[in-house]
Design brief:
This protein has 15 helices and 19 strands. By secondary structure, the chain is of the alpha+beta class. It has four domains: about 10-135, Beta-Lactamase; about 145-245, 2-Layer Sandwich (Beta-Lactamase), CATH 3.30.450; about 250-325; about 335-475, Histidine kinase-like ATPase, C-terminal domain (Heat Shock Protein 90, 2-Layer Sandwich). The strands form four sheets. Strands 1, 2, 3, 4, 5, 6 and 7 form a seven-stranded mixed β-sheet that branches. Strands 9-8-12-11-10 form a five-stranded antiparallel β-sheet. The longest helix is centred in the middle third of the chain and has 50 residues, at about 245-295.
Length: about 475
């Protein structure tokens, strides 16, 4: 039957103490609204192994672990006329650290203008059949690396896992027992993780969703279904979502690598066949250019200038094709990334001046050595820095900073520009071969950079939040 206790009963501590002395077989606790433990019955002392003077020195959350504050539990389970059929539950921690599962009822008392909560524990023997299942349920929501949302019939959030809070970038206490319409009010309805149709029996399996929480972007696989009682009546629903961002990134990297390998094989076999006739054409055009100049044929000389420029573009494209195949003279050795960057700063600075860009270089004193080819690293850093400079046609700041990730054991170089940023619908494609936003770009520069860094065992990532873009190049150190 429903449990309701909407009133606040005025009572004195002495009256509660007398009640505790008479209730020798009942487990009860008295707690104030600041989580101070005031009284415990003999059954609680027996179950936990504490003496009466010891247990009242403990903060309530240390003795009895529940998923919400007492005020929130009372409001949800016992206040008003809600038809709540489930008792709240928690784990009583003994002096030896052992945890015991209990369900409990609550009374809210008034004593001298202060609120007190009386917890009356259900007989533990009645809970043995649920003990293991409930322990698993609580551990699942707390420890599992999955986002879990439990939704009640009125479309409010009944419970949420810790991982879901992290991915949503929301605090548990700010969203629990609130309408999902309010929780996701800032998200367009078609992009919300949870739709009201879930409560009508709509089942979702392995639905791919992209989610951005203003700090990170996640690629999620989502499952949902309804929860029914023993009579088949829908009593709620659940949503489970798994973060597969790393798997999707790996899948995309493999696809790009396959495309690059295929292009590289084609390039290696045809590059010389293309460059040989280009060399002849370029030689004859240079002769014509000189002859036109000697004869004062300026118009014709301008035509040859255009053709020579286009031939140079074709040569540059062929050279980039050749870089897609595995470099034949790679020299991997212990390398100081700081030395590589310091040797490049003057070159980058010269390029920055042309675009009215300020260059800031933030180095570290002690950076571990990495196993890499310094010349290929220069190629990657120059390419990324050049892209950053060109992204600021009206001027700005290009920042190159070094850092060491001791957890992943990587040396990282962050290259940040203050340009207009990269749109979300483009950012996933920038490493794809032939994708470019430049009028004269080939779309191979970043593909080559990714291939080079990947061959060194590292990664190259990009982040853009609407103002500025940061490329992070990470290479493992030994």
């Amino acid at each position: 039957m429903p449990i309701h206790e909407p009133q606040n009963y005025a009572i004195s501590i002495d009256e509660v103490r007398n009640l505790f002395q008479l209730s020798t077989q009942t487990s009860m606790l008295l707690i104030d609204d600041e989580d101070k433990l005031l009284l415990a019955t003999d059954q609680i002392l027996k179950s936990t192994g504490y003496a009466a003077n010891e247990i009242t020195q403990l903060p309530f959350p240390r003795l009895f672990k529940v998923r919400s504050s007492l005020g929130e539990l009372y409001a949800y389970h016992f206040h008003g006329d809600r038809d709540v059929r489930e008792w709240p539950h928690g784990f009583l921690q003994g002096k030896n650290g052992e945890m015991q599962y209990y369900q409990f009822s609550m009374l809210r008392l008034q004593q001298g203008g202060k609120l007190l909560y009386l917890l009356i524990f259900k007989n533990n023997e009645e809970n043995q059949s649920l003990n293991l299942l409930q322990r698993f349920s609580d551990a699942f929501l707390k420890d599992i690396n999955l986002g879990v949302l439990l939704i009640s019939l009125d479309f409010t959030l009944a419970d949420v896992s810790d991982r879901a809070c992290q991915m949503l970038a929301m605090e548990r206490e700010n969203i629990l027992n609130k309408s999902l319409d309010d929780i996701f009010a800032s998200v367009p309805s078609q992009h919300q993780l949870v739709q009201r149709s879930i409560l009508t029996g709509a089942i979702v399996r392995n639905h791919a969703v992209s989610w951005t929480n203003n700090r990170e972007r996640f690629e999620l696989l989502l499952d949902s279904n309804v929860l029914k009682d023993s009579h088949g009546k829908i009593v709620g629903a659940y949503v489970i979502f798994k973060d597969v961002t790393n798997l999707r990134s790996l899948e995309q990297m493999v696809q790009r690598s396959d495309r690059l390998a295929m292009i590289g094989q084609i390039a290696a076999g045809t590059a010389h066949e293309i460059r040989n006739p280009l060399t002849s054409i370029k030689g004859f055009l240079q002769m014509l250019h000189r002859t036109f100049g000697e004869r004062g044929m300026g118009k014709e000389q301008n035509f040859t200038d255009v053709m020579l420029g286009e031939i140079d573009r074709i040569n540059a494209l062929v050279n980039e094709f050749l870089l897609l195949s595995k470099p034949k003279h790679v020299s991997y050795e212990s390398t100081h990334i700081t030395d590589v960057l310091r040797g490049m700063v003057p070159i980058i600075h010269t390029e920055a001046i042309l675009y009215n860009v300020q260059l800031q270089y933030e180095s570290l004193k002690h950076v571990p050595e990495v196993i890499a080819d310094s010349e290929l690293l220069k190629q990657v850093f120059l390419n990324v820095c050049k892209n950053g400079i060109e992204a600021m046609p009206d001027g700005g700041v290009l920042t190159i900073s070094e850092r060491v990730d001791t957890i992943e054991r990587n040396v990282c170089v962050d290259i940040h520009d203050t340009g207009s940023g990269i749109p979300m619908f483009v950012i996933d494609k920038i490493f794809d071969p032939f994708f470019t936003t430049k009028d004269t770009g080939t779309g191979l520069g970043l593909s080559v950079c990714q291939r080079i860094i990947h061959d060194m065992g590292g990664t190259i990532r990009v982040a853009s939040k609407g103002f500025g873009t940061t490329f992070t190049i990470s290479i493992p150190y030994t």
